[in-house]
Structure formats: C-alpha cells, structure tokens
Amino acid sequence: MQMKIGDSTIELVQGDITQQDVDAIVNAANSSLLGGGGVDGAIHRAAGSQLLDECRMLGGCPTGSAKITRGYKLRARHVIHAVGPVYRGGQSGESELLANAYRTCLHLASQNNCATVAFPAISTGIYGYPVQDAARIAFDTIIAYLREHPEIELVRYVLYDSRALETHQRVLEQVTGKM
After folding, report:
1. 40 is an active site residue
2. CA terminus-to-terminus distance, the chain
3. Does this model's pTM top 0.90?
4. Rounded Cα–Cα distance for residues 4 and 137 (Å)
5. Cβ contacts of residue 171 below 8 Å, gap of 6+?
6. In what order do the strands lie in the sheet with 24-28?
7. Among the options 16, 21, 23, 40, which is catalytic?
8. With the C-alpha atoms ordered 95, 117, 19, 27, is the resulting torsion angle positive or negative?
9. Span 91-138, pLDDT tens digits
10. Distance CA 172, CA 20 (A)
11. How far apart are CA 61 and CA 2, in angstroms?
C-alpha cells in the first residue's frame, strides 16, 4: 500500500527491516542502544559487531529520542536507533514520547541526507503499546513532518506479519481520510 503526502510517499510492506535498501532503517531500540530482542537484536546481528562498538560510544539514549549510526553490513547506510516508551496504560505521557521518537528519527534522517527511511512499529512488541494506537500516533507524526520536509521522499513502514500490516493499512486509510 502507498499513499502520497505532497511530494513524499508513505509505503506499507510486510517484510524484514534488515533487508531494506533505503538510506536509513529505524531500530526499535532500548535506552542502552546495546542490542536486545526483536527488531533491535535482528538489526544488531545483521549489521555486525561494528554497530555495537559504535553504539557503546553513544552513551545510551533517553526514551522518546533517537540517535544515528552507520549501517555497516546492512544495505542501509544508517541506522537510527529510536527509544519508544513502554506502554503503562496511556496515562504516563506515552503518546508524546512515541510521537517525539518518530519526529526525532525523521529529523535525524533530514540532517543526514537520508531521503528514504524504513520504520518498524516502534514500541508495539515487548513494550506493549497497542498496535492501532501506536500506528495512529506514528502516521499523524510522519504525515505532519513530511508536509514540512519534502527532502524525505519515502517513508517505508515495514511490518513483520500480515495482521500488523492490515491494522496499519486500516489506520493509514483512516488518518489520510480525515486530511
């Protein structure tokens, strides 16, 4: 599925984010940036040990923010490590932290001449954020950013399974339908 937002495109695909041929992939990281499970572990394994070496020099990252590294053995030139919030019922500022993580990723992409960026569904795995709510926050944030930053030509949302893909497609249609 693709949606045009001005001169930019949002694309949803089912697949493996480590295989994306884009300027930057986003890692759903923990605050240490030193690897973990899920997307984070897969990216660290695919990129090789040099990614961990560079991440050690970054000194971690606060929740709701992001940092950028090289991509090493990945097809992507860069990895943007985003630290999303752990979902605690929605009353602890999680939505603002999640939106800020997406904004920071896009800002880092712009600063580093990354015209194409692939995102996972940040915070929806072990961090427990409800997928539909997280997708709405992500798409609202991404669309607002793309309207002001045409240098980002493509945002590809890479989802691991068909259920997540269907949910994200439905939410994207709802969000863009109210534009």
Report:
1. yes
2. 18
3. yes
4. 18
5. 132, 135, 136, 139
6. 2-5, 8-14, 154-159, 116-119, 24-28, 78-82, 66-70
7. 40
8. negative
9. 999 999 999 999 999 999 999 999 999 999 999 999 999 999 999 999
10. 21
11. 32
Scanning the chain, the segments in alpha helix (DSSP H) are 38-47, 49-56, 94-111, 131-148, 162-177
Model pLDDT for residues 5-42, shown as the tens digit of each residue? 999 999 999 999 999 999 999 999 999 999 888 899 99
Residue 101: how many CA atoms within 13 Å on its side-chain side?
Answer: 31
Q: Which amino acid is at 32?
A: S
**Nearest CA among 166, 142, 172, 159 for reference residue 20:** 159
Return the CATH superfamily for domain 2-177.
Leucine Aminopeptidase, subunit E, domain 1 (3.40.220.10)
Amino acid at 169: Q
